[in-house]
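Protocol step 4 of 6: structure prediction from sequence.
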Amino acid sequence: FEFYIDILALTLLLAIPLGVYISYLLYRIQRFRLTFKPNVVSLILDFIDDGMNFDPAHPLKYDPKREIGKDRFQKSQIFATKAPYYAGEDFISGRIGEMDFEMSELHVKELSPVENRLDEVFKGVFMHATFPEETEGRMIIWPRRLRQFHTKAIKEFTWNKGLNQDKEVNNQKFKELFLTYATEDTHVESILSEPMQDAIVQYCASTGKEIYMSFIDREIYAAVSEDKDILEPNLFRSNLSFELVKGFFEDINLLLRIAEDFDQTH
């Protein structure tokens, strides 16, 4: 009996330092995850800040724990959803040209109409920018191949005087990839320039990602899908992945170019 008590005491004695070590290891892992991404994003923003038409009086700001608000996401009219599941992080803000902008990662889900589960609505990077002058006209661009998933949003837009304006798009490849809806008073080609349309087509071809855009009067919205967890560190291999960082940089860069293109053409 005493022998078993000694074994139990020894086991407990060994378990205490093991438990302390595991707790410390989990703490270190959590700290690594929380600091890795902000450090990488800060480096990317420093690089972008030097290469585009940013206002030095409004330097880029980054908040890893903040996201674009749900109401702002819904005002884009791209996704017709109540978004019962809405999460995000990595909020970036600044000014490009004369336009204030904000962007963040978002993960949005809604209740499935047929099963007791949540269906994914959007996962990726979402941007909002505001043109400084009053403008009128509304236009929304959806990926053509995903039309069945955006039937509700398209119907809501057409109920509000939106019309299919594919015929107004001269870029044939852009027309093949995207559905273009706009109000009658909106000149499609003046909102999104030919060079920008070409850049979007090339981006879709090289990455396979989906791009969404809407122009609601002076408010501009753009989003790029991302199936993977963006810039999340991998604990079991090197985190110095060029492709990982390059993909995140290109997503941000494309969204900012869309805003910059609108700013320069208006």
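Step 5 (inspection) to follow. The chain has a mean pLDDT of 81.
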